[in-house]
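Co-fold these.
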Amino acid sequence: MDIGGTLVKLVYFEPVDITAEEEQEEVENLKSIRRYLTSNVAYGKTGVRDVHLELRNLTMCGRTGNLHFIRFPTQAMPRFIQMGHDKNFSSLHTTLCATGGGAYKFENDFRMMANLELLKLDELDCLIRGLLYVDRVGFNGHPECYYFQNPSDTQSCMKKPCNLDNPFPMLLVNIGSGVSILAVYSKNNYKRVTGTSLGGGTFLGLCCLLTGCETFEEALEMASKGDSTNVDKLVKDIYGGDYERFGLQGSAVASSFGHMMSKEKRDSISKEDLARAMLVTITNNIGSIARMCAVNEKIERVVFVGNFLRINTVSTKLLAYAMDFWSKGQLRALFLEHEGYFGAVGALMELLKAAEDP
Amino acid sequence: MAECVRLDRSASSHTMDKSITLPPDEIFRNLENAKRFAIDIGGSLTKLAYYSTVQHKVAKVRSFDHSTKEASSDKLYEISMQEEVSARLHFIKFENAYIETCLDFIKDHLVNTETKVIKATGGGAHKFKELIQRKLGLKVDKEDEMTCLIKGCNFVLRNIPHEAFVYAKHADSEFRFQTTHPDIFPYLLINIGSGVSIVKVESEDKFERIGGSSIGGGTFWGLGALLTKTKRFDELLQLASRGQHASVDMLVKDIYGGSYGSLGLTGDLIASSFGKSATADKEFSKEDMAKSLLHMISNDIGQLACLYAKLHNLSRVYFGGFFIRGHPVTMHTITYSINFFTKGEVQALFLRHEGYLGAIGAFLKGAEEDNPNQYSWGENYAGSSGLMSVSPDMNPMQRARSGTFDMLEMDRLERQLVNLPLLQDPSSYIPDTVDLTEDALAREYWLYCFEEALDGVVKRAVASQPDMPEAAERAEKFSQKYRHKLQTLRHQPFAYGSLTVRSLLDTREHCLNEFNFPDPYSKIKQKENDVALRYYQKAIKSLEELSWEERQFALAQGVLAGNVFDWGAKARPWLVDSYDQWLERLKGPPHKCALFFVDNSGVDIILGVIPFVRELLSRGTEVILASNSAPALNDVTNGELQILTERIAAMDPVIQAGLREDRLTLVQSGSSSPCLDLSRLDKVLAMVVRERQTDLVIIEGMGRAIHTNYYAMLSCESLKMAVIKNSWLADRLGGKLFSVVFKYEVPAGKSSQCSPPLTRS
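Predicted complex below.
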């Protein structure tokens, strides 16, 4: 599992080649957990299994099975740990591999409340390992990776699958609550270039404050209906058209939320407009920083991951456009289907590795 | 401040009728002679620029024709007060609410102008275009905002020595002024208006917008207004300065429980701005949200600035725009962000006159035919309001700030000023020995000293103009103005850049000139010169009777004793004593050319400096005598020195030959200060110094060799001579009153050819 600032990501490998013998031997506890996880798509009020992401017929550690992807809010961690206690996880003799900041933050709670020892793993190591693995095995016969063709043209812009055959070097932009930007040169050689605190948490946090919404899905739904130009001040709002002296298009955003300086404008906009403006602001800013890093690090391939991009085509298309337009076609934005789960996958692989090495 | 007059706002309400009275003497000074106008109208402030001429009195000296014996008095020369016209740039900043009143005022007082256009820039220019045209009858000519900004920025960086500063919230002095690099290019200007523009400036005319961001001041204002229902930008900043961002932001420790050690991310680092407001079902205070927003935007801008600085390999990064403009909160957060992202490699620099850049640039655009960049300009301390801290704890007068008029005046200098070519490292040269901005004890002492001395200065000023009955009244006005400046500096020592003894002296000179006391010492200097001249021949004769070695010592003593009558013979070793090395050097080959910065009139110049110079000439060394271009205290001016050397030449064949053969040259320093800034000297002086291959610089007197240049490093030999006539300063330097400084220095690497070898093989 990968315990982030906002979400906990959990991957579960369900072997499907269990023999009758094995089933007999299997502890009742483990059986019940498997049944609980694989027969439901929702857990409690907030836990969700992303069925569409399930990787089927995977071979791991010599076993064939399905990989399930589950997420729930980090806020629910105390309840999760309580469940671990109630279901007596500690009797299973299995190691729980955890990464993300929460592996450190909740380590003591796991130990005290559920009598569980966590195997803590570095989140960036896990992220890269998981990403490379999922890209290699593919998405049930399809490529994991995709990009947008004609990103600068809204009419002909199209999602296209591709392969990350030779992924290095790549700039890896992980957009969770905050953003980390890594330059990855090989499987084991990478560095964190920079990060920004303006990430998914900022989008959701400010949306909640501005619109009263409560969930990421709600915020995105509103954003999809809004018009950010009612909120943002564009170049043409200041100069009447393009700012030719500096080659700025009239449609470019000059000041995010700039119209909101005026009371009349504040009184005339909708919540949807605000949500859209928030999404555009955060996305463009990440795009801008990522692009500068790519130029500074001399890397042309920019891979965006993280749960901010989940069900968020507004942002993915905007990022694809920003990379292409501002670099005059030099940079290409790439995306991955399993957006936010690579850290958790990487942690699982560590567990398997531990199992393989006696 | 006297010049920052609070307008009666209750009377103005929204009608802006003429019942708002503007004190004309104080604000729109010299308006009657205004020639050109420019205006920069921003979102809330208007900056008006005009070029005007100032008529003021100057003291001139003229030699009597001694051959005809017409001089019935024994006086050496005649002193006359003449009217002179000089050029001055005026900049006034006021709230947009006053714009109509101000335009009416200008209309009523403008008499001599021939101008038909007013250059305009800034976002508000189009809004007021019609009003300006109607009120002033001038055609509004709009100029590109960014071009004006860059032009203005170049101008202040070039002409105001302490323009740029580093902001340090928790340091002893909030503002740390930087010495301007002689080559101001290339630099990065980050202008934070409603959005952010990042401009790379490579030369006067070459600049490029290399990037920008839509997250800027407008985002802070707009989002801030939505989140807190607070309408005004200033109020939002006030809220932010009281807030705690950690209740709204998700910190690294909120995710990790502590720091993320392997990446070196501390627990207090913001992982996700506003990250807590999505998950917590609670109300957040306005203050906390404003603070979080301020951090988010400042950090973001700082990060982009660093990425661009790195990409273009630039280390000088200036910040401006309304988001920054004098606000300690934003200067602090931006500084913090830059430090964080560059690990201290790049410093965030701010500008003292940032608010005026657009107006200055617009003005320069309109004045291109007058070639304003061909001249050097100097900030007039008497007419400028100076920088004011808006931080409430630094400045109790802060509340009065809105509604005040802020002013900047720049004098066009007669001479173009450049670096002394002999400075070892012009970019690190700091003229002043003690920075009173950082040294609170020293500041207190000197402010007290100058205040104590004020009555004496007033008396002398009045006495210098016995024929003018209103002199006493003017002197009183001078006294009030200077006293007020001292009081301001007590609270805001950073008002005019680093506070130094030099700036205190210069401010006094500016104030004296302001009230037409161009040379309070003129009569005293005349008398002293006259007396000293009578002893000249006798002094030379007694010097010539000495042995060579005795004479060298007497000559050094003569220069030192020159500015203290009761000095007597001070036993060696002196407080700083490298006389032996100097003597050894004199036994070697003569210098090619010596540059001598002279000090006082009377005994000092005539019986101290001239005999010393005479000896150098006799050795075969050429001499450049550099004296002030305009009066300061009892320092000898170039005009006076011309007459004095002519008179001496008439009695002394060595001096006469020196002048005739052009081996003794008199040049103006370009300065009118009792101190000396080697980075702002007359261009002609620099040329002569270079042409003559000057290899020795002599600096004499407290003002030039102790208060300034004590630590100055030169690329050739130098000799600094002074007697410390101030017990506090003597104490500071570890000596007693009347301690002697005789500092002879040879730059590293040049000693072998200059001093004789110690051992012979």
